[in-house]
Structure formats: structure tokens, C-alpha cells
């Protein structure tokens, strides 16, 4: 599975952003899809997860209510919508596909929140 993220960029505080992850090489409908982020000097952290069927999601408390993951298995894409961005959301955002012990990562897309 090859994953390519897009949609990152410079956003003002309070703004919104949509990230997209396009997959190729394999259909995503059997994969658990997740978004992670890694800020400078910090460990990579999970920010959103969706089951393969799309019927279950998980968000850590730190982003709950502001982040929304969605998937379109027909288009083989996963998206992350982020609202009310703040400086602490500045990070490289990564898409992950997981099936059992098989894990695939995209190259990441930079999100910078600044005025």
C-alpha cells in the first residue's frame, strides 16, 4: 500500500483545514486507517482512527471535538478535517494503514498554525 498525504499548509489560528490521504496498490476497505502527527521535538501521536468498515472512530481527548476522520473506500481515500486550529496543532501529519501486523505510512504533510 502506498499512501500520499496532501492538504497541509499555513493556517491562521482558529481556522480549519482538511487533509487527504490517497492510497494505491491495494483497496483500503480492509485496513484500519489512522492519522498521526509529530511536532518538532515530540513523539508521534495518534490523533484519529477509523475502523475498516467506517463504523467506529477514536480520538484522544486532546483533539476530540475538533478533529474528524472520514473515509471513502470507493475512492480509496481517507480525510482528516481539523477545526479551531491552534499553534499546538503545528506538526507533520501522517496517514497510516494497518491490517493486522502490516503497517503502512505516508510521507506526511506539514501543517503550520501561525498568524
How does this model look, in words?
The chain is mainly beta and 115 residues long. The protein has no helices and eleven strands. It has strands spanning 2-6, 9-11, 17-24, 32-38, 45-50, 57-58, 67-72, 77-82, 91-99, 102-105, 109-113. The strands form two sheets. Strands 2, 4, 5, 6, 9, 10 and 11 form a seven-stranded mixed sheet that branches. The protein has a four-stranded antiparallel sheet with strand order 1-3-8-7, with no helix packed on it. The N and C termini lie far apart (37 Å). The model has no long low-confidence stretch (mean pLDDT 96).
Mean pLDDT: 96
**Distance separating the two termini:** 37 Å
- As a whole number of angstroms, the C-alpha radius of gyration is 13 Å
The portion of residues forming beta strands comes to: over 45%
Structural class: mainly beta
Low-pLDDT runs of 5+ residues are none
The biggest sheet, with number of strands, parallel, antiparallel or mixed sense and barrel status, is: 7 strands, mixed
Enumerate how many helices there are, as a single number: 0
State the shape: globular
H/E element order: EEEEEEEEEEE
Count of beta strands:
11
Fraction of helical residues: under 10%
Task: Summarize the helices and strands and which ones pair or pack.
Blueprint: E1 2-6, E2 9-11, E3 17-24, E4 32-38, E5 45-50, E6 57-58, E7 67-72, E8 77-82, E9 91-99, E10 102-105, E11 109-113
Parallel strand pairs: 2-11
Antiparallel strand pairs: 1-3, 3-8, 4-5, 4-9, 5-6, 7-8, 9-10, 9-11
Amino acid at each position: 500500500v502506498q499512501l500520499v498525504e496532501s492538504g497541509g499548509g499555513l493556517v491562521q489560528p482558529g481556522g480549519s483545514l482538511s487533509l487527504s490521504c490517497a492510497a494505491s496498490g491495494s483497496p483500503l476497505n480492509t485496513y484500519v486507517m489512522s492519522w498521526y502527527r509529530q511536532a518538532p521535538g515530540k513523539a508521534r501521536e495518534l490523533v484519529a482512527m477509523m475502523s475498516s468498515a467506517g463504523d467506529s472512530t477514536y480520538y484522544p481527548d486532546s483533539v476530540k471535538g475538533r478533529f474528524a476522520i472520514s473515509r471513502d473506500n470507493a475512492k480509496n481515500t481517507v480525510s482528516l478535517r481539523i477545526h479551531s486550529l491552534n499553534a499546538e496543532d503545528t506538526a507533520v501529519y501522517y496517514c497510516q494503514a494497518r491490517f493486522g501486523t502490516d503497517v503502512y505510512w505516508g510521507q506526511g504533510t506539514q501543517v503550520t498554525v501561525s498568524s
